[in-house]
Design brief:
Number of helices: 3
Strand order of the largest sheet: 1-4-3-2
Oligomer: single chain
Structural class: alpha/beta
Strand content: 35-45%
Helix content: 10-25%
Number of strands: 8
């Protein structure tokens, strides 16, 4: 067994919509999709990074109470969460492919800090940086 972080989660208000976005538009693959009553454990992973999963979680019980869930939905929609970073070999190529699949970018590829990066948000407000590997 390897020790370390295996799953990091983000909040989404619709797991089916999140699944469609992350699989069809970003190229992730489903890792786990199980339900326990109204709670759904849904994780995806990037094809080249099989040791790490991104959890697509609804803020709900048992994670948080109903009032907190509403506040979290509002905060995510405003872009209040820290951005996630997706490293790619060629930022311009990845940008063009994702844009063709309907990803809406908030910043086109830009040269800075010795690399190229672009920015987009998922349908729920979670921010992403698309960064070219050095």
């Amino acid at each position: 067994m390897k020790n370390g972080v295996q799953v990091a989660g983000i909040y989404v208000h619709d797991q089916d919509e999140a699944l469609q976005f992350y699989v069809e538009k970003l190229g992730f693959q489903v890792h786990t999709d199980v339900r326990n009553g109204s709670f759904r454990w849904l994780t995806v992973q990037y094809p080249d990074q099989t040791g790490f999963q991104l959890g697509l979680f609804r803020p709900q019980e048992p994670l948080v109470d109903e009032a907190t869930a509403r506040r979290l939905d509002e905060a995510v929609a405003k872009g209040a969460m820290p951005p996630l970073v997706l490293v790619v070999e060629n930022c311009l190529e990845a940008f063009q492919g994702m844009r063709e699949r309907g990803v809406e970018f908030t910043q086109e590829p830009t040269n800075r800090y010795g690399s190229v990066d672009a920015s987009f948000r998922d349908p729920f407000g979670n921010g992403w940086k698309l960064v070219e590997a050095r």
